Amino acid sequence: MKCKYDKRTQTYDCVFEEFDIRKIREVGMIKGGINVYGTDYYPSEDGRVFIQLLDEDGKPIDDALCLLDLFYPDKTIWFYEAPMIWLNISKGLYYFDFIVPDQEGVYMVTVQCFYVIDETFDYADSVTVTHGVESGSVQDTWKDDNVYYTVSEKLLAGGGYALDFYFDFYNVSIPSNVTGMTVYWVGRWTSSEEIVYFEVYDWCTGSWVDLVNNISTNTPTVSNFVSVDEYNISCLVSGTDSGTVRVRLRDKDWSEKVEAGDLMTDFIDVQMKYATYGQINNIRGGGEVHVHSPAVSELISSDVWRRYLELYPYIKQVTQTVDPQVCLDNNTLLSYINYTFCIGNTCQDVSYNTTIPCQYGCDMQRNKCKEPPYIKWIIVLAIVFGVIILVKVFA
Fold first, then answer.
1. Residues 106/71, Cβ–Cβ less than 8 Å
2. Can you say how many angstroms the Cα of residue 99 is from the centroid of all Cα atoms in its chain?
C-alpha cells in the first residue's frame, strides 16, 4: 500500500497494492485464486481484511465459507479459523473487521475458502446470568442495530469482578452434509484489563468446550468455527432438550479489581454450515496487514482523534483548556477549546475552533458579542423604575 499525505486536508491518499495469491492446495477441479487485500493502520483504528473470491472463469463465488487466520507480529495466533462475512449483494467479497492493537509490525494473514456451502441461522431464545448485572433483553441480540443486551461484571463478596452467563438457542437442527458450526458475535467489551472467553456446551460429556477466538477491546466482531473434522458437532446440539445449543461467555480472572467491564452484545447467532451439492472445493490465500505507531510530530486530523475518543473509552482525555474568546473582526467571535489526547504513548494537542457570528457586532474590548440594543433600554428602564420605587419607599 502506498500513501501520500495531503497537508491541506490533513489526510492520507492511499492506494492498495494487490496481493494476488494463487492456489496452494486444491480439492476437486477448482483452478481459482484468492485476492487478499491488506493495508496500513495506526493502533486503535478500525481495521478490515477483505478478499474477492472468483472461480476459474473469473466469476464471483458468493456461497463460500472463508476462514481467516491472523497472526501477531511475533507470529503467535490472534484469530484462528475465524469465519469471514460475505458482503451482501457484492460480487464475491468477504470481509473481517477488527480494532487494531497497539503492537507495531506486520500481521500475517491466511485465508481458506470452501464452497459450495450454505448455512442455517438460529438466534438466542433465552439467557441465564450466573455472575453479572444485566440490562436489556435477549431480543436485543437478534439484529445488528446498535441496540445492546449488556451484562456488567459483578463485584464479589470477597472482592474482584466476575462475569459468567450463557445463551440458549432452541430448535437447532443439524443439516445433511454438515461441515461445521459457527458462533458469530457482534458487540463491545469495555475492560482492557482482561478478555472474555467463548465456550459451547458438550451434551455428550456434560462439560464446556473452549472456543479459540475470544473477545477483547480490539474485537468488535468475533466468530468461531467448529469443524466436523475436529469435533463431533452432534454433541453440541442437545438430542433431548429441543435441539438446544448453549454458548457461554465469561471471564476467568475473578481476582481482577481494577475495572468492572461491560459486555455489550449487539448480535449473536449460531450457524450450521453444510454442502449443498457435490464436491467441497478448497482454496487458500494469504497476505499481510501493517501496523505503525504514529510519530508525535505527525499531524492527525481533529476529526480522527474525536472519533477515537467516542469509540474507545480507554483513550483518556488528559487536559482541557478553555481559551478566552476573541473577536476576529467587528462581526465575528472565535471560541475554541484545547484538548490533549493520548493513544498509547502518543499524545497530541487538538483545538476545536468555532466561529460565532455577532448579529449586533463584536465588542473588541470585552471580546464578546454585543447585546441587542433593546437589552440596554430594558436595563435603563429597570434602573429608572428601581429609583422611582426607592424614592417612594423612603419619601
1. no
2. 6
Separation CA 168–CA 78 (nearest Å): 27
Fold for 118-276, please state it: Jelly Rolls (2.60.120)
Where on the phi/psi map is residue 243: left (φ > 0), alpha (ψ -120 to 50), or beta? left
Neighbours of 341 (CB within 10 A): 21
Please check whether residue 13 is in contact with residue 303, taking contact to mean a CB–CB distance below 8 angstroms. no
Residue ranges per domain, the chain?
A: 1-116+278-293, 118-276, 302-394
Q: Nearest-CA neighbor of 159 among 93, 257, 77, 71?
A: 257
Contact 114, 179 (CB under 8 A): yes
Give the number of other CB atoms < 10 A from CB of residue 91: 12
Q: Whole-angstrom Cα distance, residue 15 to residue 185?
A: 31
Q: pTM above 0.90?
A: no
Mind listing the pLDDT tens digit of every residue in the chain (395 residues)? 333 444 444 444 444 333 332 222 222 222 344 555 556 767 777 788 888 887 767 778 887 888 888 888 888 988 888 888 888 878 888 888 888 887 888 888 888 887 666 788 999 999 999 999 999 999 999 998 999 999 999 988 878 889 999 999 999 999 888 889 999 999 999 988 889 999 999 999 999 999 999 999 888 999 999 988 889 999 999 977 679 999 999 998 888 777 789 999 999 999 998 876 544 455 555 455 555 544 333 334 455 555 544 544 444 444 455 556 788 788 888 776 666 655 555 566 666 566 788 888 888 888 888 888 777 777 777 787 777 777 777 76
Is the link from the previous residue into 116 a cis peptide, with omega within 30 of 0? yes
Q: Which CATH architecture has domain 1-116+278-293?
A: Sandwich (2.60)
Query: Looking up cell 452467563, which residue turns up?
Result: 165
Per DSSP (E only), the strands in 252-375 are: 262-275, 281-291, 317-322, 326-327, 332-343, 346-357, 362-363, 368-369
Give CA 221 to chain center in angstroms: 6
Contacts of 260 (CB under 8 A, 6+ apart): 152, 153, 154, 155, 161, 191
